[in-house]
Amino acid sequence: MPINAAYRGPADLPEVIPVFPLAGALLLPRGQMPLNIFEPRYMAMVDDSLRDGHRLIGMIQPDATHSANDETPALFQVGCVGRITQLAESGDGRYILELTGVSRFKVTEELAVKTPYRQCRVDYFPFVDDFTARKGEDEVDRDTLLSVLTDFLKANNLKVDWGGVESAPNEALVNALAMMSPYGAPEKQAMLEAPDLKTRAEILIAVTEMDLAKKRTSGDPPLQ
């Protein structure tokens, strides 16, 4: 989805951003993530993001393996900031919004704040390539990716719009499949932190092949 703001590099983004910890959520640059916001603290986060004008929210996964507090869990060190590109009010006190990914970030410090939501100081420079659309997509093994996708769909009795898949550029295809994948926090974090698109596709292929092999061995039923 095109966005009105032009982000040419890390200097175009704020160093301090609100963060939304959400397990299993994977946002990637130029990917779209729908969100159903209903908790008061995150309603306030959206309101403040719009009021401040930057319309940015950092998506990040809680790190359950290092969390002693369920209310304020530890965070993984890498997330992705997204811009609110669609917003609707539900009429029953919720926001229905869509984030479009801009760039990954590394958390350098979580701030002590008075807001009900968490805020972090972040560094985008380790992911400067995120600001260049479709960078490295020629290195993706598209044939293997599509072959594994075909096997996954058959194993789980799923269908897909193959016309849309075949017309999608490699970056959009890899990132969309990674974001929609049914895997857990560690796998999604590995795809998020992949140094380039080629590596992200390779991780997605490897994880899917392992999942398929496990299902064949155990006789697990297809995903519902």
TrEMBL record:
Give the signal sequence positions: none
What Pfam families does the record point to?
LON_substr_bdg (PF02190)
User: What sequence ranges are listed for the domain Lon N-terminal?
Assistant: 17-212
Cited SMART domains: LON
Q: What is this protein called?
A: LON peptidase substrate-binding domain-containing protein
Query: What is the native source organism of this protein?
Result: Rhodopseudomonas telluris
Q: What is the lineage of its organism?
A: Bacteria, Pseudomonadati, Pseudomonadota, Alphaproteobacteria, Hyphomicrobiales
